[in-house]
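Problem: given the chain below (142 residues), write out its structure.
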Amino acid sequence: MADRALLHKSKLEDFKCFLDEHLIGYRAGKGEYQVLQVKTAEHGWQPIYEKLESPEHYSVPGKLTGLVRQFIREYKHSSRPDVDKGEHWFIRYPGGTTIVKVQITDVTERTVEVKELRIAARPQRYLLGDIEFVELTNGEWP
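Solution.
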């Protein structure tokens, strides 16, 4: 059974990022009303439809409902803090207890790439909701 009001139209690009992060394939929809097709392990390619009677939401088939609900749960817990590329922050890594100074090397809608400043390490990418941003340092080292 399709859920006709599950995926808001304004969240389609975020949903694609979610699929990329979870290594789930997707492609453009076919025909006039499909907006996207999502690859599922058990059911193959499943379409997401645009319905004329629903101006704000896409129609999601029952076989994708669980995946879209997972996206909605994760999206609610990963609101984007006001972080910009080039800034220096004190952060706490996921599961960490110490505070580390990093430079923000890239920011997307759902992820952030950080480089520790005290060690010569490659930048690492994290979901925005996984890192605790403690304090903006404006490039100054206390």
